[in-house]
Design brief:
This protein is mainly α and about 100 residues long. Helix content is about 50%, strand content about 0%. The chain has one domain.
């Protein structure tokens, strides 16, 4: 079970049925996209930088805002291949 204060970042999920290990990728993605300061602090206390970077390097398709993925790419000093980054964007990237 996840703490109730994460609900605003995971608004369409039942936190009582979620575990931080099983839903790691989703939790990291949602908090990096929509989380507040408290949620971000929780994220950094519960997942390693390596785990967070791994989620960023392999972004879920259609789950990321462009400004957010670019920001975290810079913060964590990683490079996401353009083809992966474009597929990850929501709304979908229009050419």
């Amino acid at each position: 079970m996840l703490p109730n204060f994460l609900q605003t970042a995971l608004w369409s999920y039942d936190l009582k049925k979620m575990t931080k290990n099983r839903y790691k990728n989703l939790i990291i993605t949602q908090i990096l996209n929509f989380g507040d300061w408290r949620q971000l602090q929780w994220l950094l206390q519960n997942y390693s930088a390596k785990e967070i970077k791994e989620v960023l390097k392999n972004p879920a398709r259609g789950m990321w805002r462009a400004d957010v993925i670019n920001y975290w790419e810079k913060i964590f000093n990683i490079r996401i291949p353009k083809s992966k980054a474009l597929k990850a964007l929501w709304p979908p990237y229009a050419k």
